[in-house]
Amino acid sequence: MKVEVKPLSFLSKTIYMLNHGGLLLTSIGNAGKPNVMTIGWGLIGTLWRKPVFTVAVRPSRYTYRLIEETGCFTVNVPAKGMKEVVKYCGTFTGRVHNKFMEKGLNTTPGITVIAPTIAECAINYECKVLYKVKVRPKTLTEEVCSKCYPKGNYHTLYFGEILKTLAQGYKEKHEVKR
After folding, report:
1. Rounded to an integer, what distance in angstroms lies between the CA atom of residue 136 and that of residue 158?
2. Hey, how many other C-beta atoms are within 10 angstroms of the C-beta on 144?
3. Is 71 exposed, middle or buried (0-12, 13-18, 19+ CB in 10 A)?
4. Neighbouring C-beta atoms of residue 38, cutoff 10 Å
5. pLDDT tens string for the chain (178 positions)?
6. In whole angstroms, what is the distance from residue 3 CA to residue 86 CA?
């Protein structure tokens, strides 16, 4: 069973997974069809006195349109044994594939946002977009432009306020006291 935990309780676990296989970002559009994609770039911490998860999404991605429509997303930290799922979700587009069904992922309705969380994941962050900014090539170093954007297609950075964090199998000291 998942319990609500303090938003930044599992920074090291989240960052470790981000750098070693990736996290799963879920979104949903106005039509109500959810999508999941793998992210390997992101930041989690405090900004504007709020817990924030910043994700980078290219405008060419299906997820981009969905976040633009609803202004929310969830970030899901995979549990052990989900490596193949994470790889699959980063390879195929939700425009054509129902990755949830194809990989046997169960969605759980978000509590504070309309984007779902992934039940099989160890940690779920529910986020509402506070701010977004398009990456401007002229402000990047030449090295970043050439290595990360050889074809253009610059990301939009979404700064999502973490409204709720749920985790399973973790010690009580991290739970939110009511």
Report:
1. 14
2. 12
3. middle
4. 18
5. 899 999 999 999 999 999 999 999 999 999 999 999 999 999 999 999 999 999 999 999 999 999 999 999 999 999 999 999 999 999 989 899 999 999 999 999 999 999 999 999 999 999 999 999 998 888 989 999 889 888 888 889 999 999 999 998 765 555 555 5
6. 23
The residue behind tokens 């920074």 is: 11
Q: Which residue shows structure tokens 């749920």?
A: 166
Is residue 177 a part of any domain in this protein?
no
Range of the domain at 127: 2-168
Residue 178 falls within a domain, yes or no?
A: no
Whether 13 and 171 have beta carbons less than 8 Å apart is answered as no
